[in-house]
């Protein structure tokens, strides 16, 4: 168990591999069960949700926010792990100014999920796509969870256009080009 600057625990995993015909040599790998990449461009909050306990804030989120600053939109990896006492492995998400999501699973490799988060301040929704893949190479024991915008609007016309969500009166202006 590691702790971040806020004292929040991160339960890293150990993989023990005995090297055959080596006279007892072995390889020990320390890894994070999940790496989360936030490609939404918005601030995210993640909590592990267990059946009988309150949701626990994931370790390291403040560090990632501090590294990014206010204007940068990079997908820095966030190591994530569930506590060892619950096997349901559910998370709840909050993106930008949204409300918390319903519990989601990060366990089904190859799956893509559309999570709809109601906005806390407006009559709108935030759609986030979640994809779960196995890590490559030396990260093969880690699941890579990517959070990305579900919809991207791009205006390639020579004029500005306005768009809005059904049921909302707030207009979004998409600049030309």
UniProtKB/TrEMBL annotation:
It holds the Pfam family VPS13_VAB. Residues 2-175 form the Vacuolar protein sorting-associated protein 13 VPS13 adaptor binding domain. One of its GO terms (biological process) is protein targeting to vacuole. InterPro entries: VPS13 (IPR026847), VPS13_VAB (IPR009543). Belongs to the VPS13 family. PANTHER family: INTERMEMBRANE LIPID TRANSFER PROTEIN VPS13 (PTHR16166:SF93), VACUOLAR PROTEIN SORTING-ASSOCIATED PROTEIN VPS13 (PTHR16166). This is Vacuolar protein sorting-associated protein. The gene is VPS13.
């Amino acid at each position: 168990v590691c702790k971040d600057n806020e004292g929040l625990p991160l339960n890293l995993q150990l993989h023990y591999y005995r090297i055959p015909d080596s006279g007892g040599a072995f390889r020990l790998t320390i890894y994070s069960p999940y790496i989360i990449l936030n490609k939404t461009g918005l601030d995210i909050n993640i909590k592990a949700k267990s059946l009988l306990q309150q949701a626990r804030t994931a370790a390291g989120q403040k560090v990632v926010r501090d590294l990014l600053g206010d204007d940068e939109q990079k997908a820095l990896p966030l190591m994530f792990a569930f506590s060892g006492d619950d096997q349901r492995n559910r998370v709840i998400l909050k993106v930008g100014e949204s409300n918390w999501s319903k519990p989601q699973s990060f366990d089904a490799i190859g799956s893509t999920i559309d999570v709809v988060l109601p906005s806390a301040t407006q009559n709108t929704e935030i759609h986030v796509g979640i994809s779960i893949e196995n890590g490559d190479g030396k990260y093969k024991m880690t699941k890579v969870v990517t959070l990305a915008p579900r919809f991207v609007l791009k205006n390639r016309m020579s004029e500005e256009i306005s768009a809005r969500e059904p049921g909302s009166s707030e207009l979004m202006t998409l600049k030309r080009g």
